[in-house]
Amino acid sequence: MSELERRYRRLLARYPRDHRERHGDEMLAVLMSAAGDRDRPSTRETADLMWAAVRLHLRRVVVADGGVDARDVLAVVSLLAPLALLAGATTGVHEIAWFVKAGAIGSMPWTTQFPDAPVWVLWGVVAVLVLRGRSRAAAVVAWPAVVLSVLVAAFYPHQHWWTGMDAGWILVGLLTAVALTWSPGPARGRELVGRKAVLVMAVTVAATVALGVLGSREPVVEFLRLAAVIGGTLVACGHRSRVGRRAALILLLPTVTMVLGYAQLLVSLRMPTSLEVAVFYGLPVVALLALGGLPRRVRRRPDRPVT
Fold first, then answer.
1. Considering Cα of 144, then 237, then 299, then 175, what sign does the dihedral take?
2. C-alpha distances in Å from residue 297, one per residue of 158, 176, 180
3. pTM above the 0.85 mark?
4. I need a labelling partner for 39 at 20 to 30 A (CA). Which of 15, 214, 239, 298 fits?
C-alpha cells in the first residue's frame, strides 16, 4: 500500500461506517486516479473530504439523510409555527405589563415601545385561523404579516435587534407563510404529530412569554426561556420522528439567532450591519440546508390534497 493510499484511507475513515461500506472503494479509486504523481492529498482535497464527513455525521444526528417528505415537514410547521411565533411578542408584552403596573397604559407610546404590535396581532389571527381549520385564509394573512415584519424591522429597528438575535422571528415567519401556502396544511401536520402537539406548543409559548415578562434580559431567565422553548418544541414536534426533528429545526431558528446574538455580546464583537444580516440570516439558513431541515424543493403532489 502506497503512502498516498494510506493517507486517503485515513481520511475516508472519518466517514460513517455504512457510507464507507457502500462507497468507500469507489471513492478511493476515484481519488487515486485523480491524484496523478502526488504522494499526499492536497490541502483543498483534505478539507473537502473532512467537511463532507462532518456533514454526513451531522445529518445522521438529525436523521436527515433521506426518507422524509419535505411537504410533511412543512405541514408540521404550518400547524405549530403560527403558535410558536407568538413568543416573539414577549418584549412588547413586557412593555405593556410595565405600563399597566405603573398605571400609565393610556399614555404608552406604542410607536416606540411596541411598534411591532400589528405584526403579532396578524400572527395571532393566523394562529386562530389554523386552529379553526381555515388554512387557506391563514396563508392569505401570513404573507402581509411577513411583509409588515420586514417593514417594522426597517423603519423601527430600535425595539428589536432585527439584524441580530431577533432575525429568527422573521425567518420563521417567512417559512410559516411558505408552509401554509405550499404544504398539505395543518390537517396533515396534526395527523403526523397528534392533537396534543398544539397544546404542548401553546403551553410552551405561554411559559416563554411569562418568563420574559417577569425577568426580561435577566441571564437566568433567558436561560430558562431557551430551555423551555427547546424542550417544548422538541416534545410538540415529536423528537423521535424524522419529520418532527426537521420541523423542530425550523421552529427553533429564533433560538439559534438568539444564541448567536448572546455570543456576539459576550465577546463584544461589533459588526457592520451588512455582515450582521449575512451572519444572522444567512448562517441559520445554510445550517438548515446542511442538516436537511430546510426543504430544497417543494412540489405539489396530486395524491395528497392540500387542505
1. positive
2. 36, 15, 15
3. no
4. 15
Q: What is the pLDDT along the chain (307 residues), one digit of tens a residue?
A: 788 889 999 999 998 887 888 888 999 999 988 888 888 888 989 999 999 988 887 766 555 555 567 889 899 999 999 999 999 888 888 889 889 988 888 888 888 888 889 999 999 999 999 999 999 999 999 999 999 999 988 887 666 677 888 889 999 999 999 999 999 999 999 999 998 999 999 999 999 999 888 876 677 887 888 899 999 999 999 877 878 888 998 999 888 888 888 888 888 888 888 888 888 898 888 877 766 666 555 554 444 443 3
Grid cell digits, residue 288 = 438548515
- The single residue listed with the C-alpha cell 387542505 is 307
Contact present, 146 and 243 (Cβ < 8 Å): no
Q: What is the DSSP string of 125-193?
A: HHHHHHHTT-HHHHHHHHHHHHHHHHHHHHH-TTSS-TTTTTHHHHHHHHHHHHHHHHSS-HHHHHHHH
Cell digits of residue 217: 434580559
Q: Do the beta carbons of residue 85 and residue 175 sit within 8 Å? A: no
Q: Tell me the domain boundaries of the chain.
A: 3-61, 70-291
- Alpha-carbon distances, residue 228 vs 29, 86, 156, 202, 273 (angstroms): 49, 14, 29, 12, 30
Collapsing DSSP states into helix, strand and coil, what is residue 216?
Answer: coil
Rounded CA-CA distance 170/145 in Å is 10
Q: DSSP letters of 42-89? A: -HHHHHHHHHHHHHHHHHHHTT-SS---HHHHHHHHHHHHHHHHGGGG
